[in-house]
Amino acid sequence: xxxxxxxxxxxxxxxxxxxxxxxxxxxxxxxxxxxxxxxxxxxxxxxxxxxxxxxxxxxxxxxxxxxxxxxxxxxxxxxxxxxxxxxxxxxxxxxxxxxxxxxxxxxxxxxxxxxxxxxxxxxxxxxxxxxxxxxxxxxxxxxxxxxxxxxxxxxxxxxxxxxxxxxxxxxxxxxxxxxxxxxxxxxxxxxxxxxxxxxxxxxxxxxxxxxxxxxxxxxxxxxxxxxxxxxxxxxxxxxxxxxxxxxxxxxxxxxxxxxxxxxxxxxxxxxxxxx
Length: 275
Known about the structure:
Blueprint: H1 8-25, H2 44-58, H3 78-88, H4 95-114, E1 123-124, E2 133-134, H5 135-157, H6 166-176, H7 179-186, E3 193-200, E4 205-211, E5 217-220, E6 229-234, H8 235-242, E7 255-259, H9 261-269
Parallel strand pairs: 3-6
Antiparallel strand pairs: 1-2, 3-4, 4-5, 6-7
Helix pairs in contact: 1-4, 1-5, 1-6, 2-3, 2-4, 2-5, 5-6
């Protein structure tokens, strides 16, 4: 085996999620491909197109030469414009064409990953054309992104599942890394305060975000005896909020807040950490 041990968990998580996507969409009839998802302006077809397009770029395929329509309201900046090209170029594809390309892309990408022999610290091109990142971080981001989009598709198609899959655990760890910025910088938690996040459901965890005397925040697994805020919510709601799929008001009945209500509202208002 040529794959480095630190890369294998991300490859396994990616494989689990992308194969789940393939199983979800293969039996769809044409009309189901047009169902709206929580991603602004994107249908089921569009989400699958996005997944295919990014994996093709990871394979080194050239980007399509394609001009976007001017009336796409959800294309608001360079990042969304970059992502939209791979999506819009496939909007005329039929369901069978989509599933065939997805299956072929999975085969090609799986072969590439099986033969991956580079060091985890090797610098590679980022998934969205940005600055170079390490190979390990790139594979971690792909495992995260594909799991999030698997969940987008499951909600749109009303087929819940895999909330505790390997990809879900990758997502948990990556999303937790965004909490210090959310609490200290975005929500403005004062120095020397603590915020507890208590999550239950398929993935359970409790984390404390501590803001030190200089306003710097960190996450730990140790409890706090006197937190300024405690947020209790289920794992799916946590992921929806952290991935920007819903506004706090839409899931208010699934969140219990204790302590400083103004700070709690500010944290929830800034909870999204993904583009």
